[in-house]
Amino acid sequence: MTPNASEATSRKALRWQEHKERTRHDLLASARTLFAERGYHATSAADIAAGAGVTERTLFRYFPNKLALVLDEFIGLLPEMAQSVRERPAAEPPYQAVCEGILDFGLRHLDMMALVMTAEGELEIPLDGRQRPLIDFEDTLAEVLRERYAVPAEDQISPAVWARASIGALRTALVIAARGPSAATPSPAGAPGDPLRACFAALQRGNDGPGDMPLRGP
Q1: Model-level pTM?
Q2: How many domains does one find in the chain?
Q3: Which of 32, 20, 97, 100 is nearest to 61 (CA)?
Q4: Has residue 105 been placed in a domain?
Q5: Are residues 83 and 120 in the same domain?
Q6: Is 24 among the domain residues?
Q7: Cα–Cα distances in Å, from 99 out to 109, 168, 169, 216, 217?
Q8: Structural contact between residues 85 and 140, judged by C-beta atoms closer than 8 angstroms
Q9: Does the residue 214 lie in any domain?
Q10: pLDDT tens, 5-14?
Q11: Which residue range(s) make up the domain with 178?
């Protein structure tokens, strides 16, 4: 291939990549606008595609379903969620710090969290593709907890267990919330209708380690 031909190929590849990113951005913007105007359930994939100026078939080349459009924004904000946990008061034990950190994060992103919780069906988190960061976030959270509690490097178990159990509690809380208020179980600390605190309270009831304390509301 001549230098000119190689340059032309590179420019073509760059334009195609820019087109893909622009289409993805337009689909996300369309979904965000329509979800806010009509709600998640009343917005179809065809509506979102039309709002972005593409076909429904094109939408499904970028996102496998409507839920993926909601999760994309959530995934992008995972570093902020980790930072919320990192900044919790030092005296809080692991599960309380994660729970309260997630709640702090949720209060800053109420609209997005409402979308996640009202998305139809159970929230299955795939193990690959663009949703892989939801699984990788467990490792990030484990490192945050290792730093918070100065866990020795040779202990590869404690932070990983705290992180994976915490993500399990979060996923369970989201599923419970998606099923509606009647499915939410009050936590022992007396926070009715708060499935996240109820799930983390269940974790703490099964944890006999030092420093445990009941989860409390603000």
Answers
A1: 0.71
A2: 2
A3: 20
A4: yes
A5: yes
A6: yes
A7: 15, 12, 9, 10, 11
A8: no
A9: no
A10: 677 777 777 8
A11: 72-205
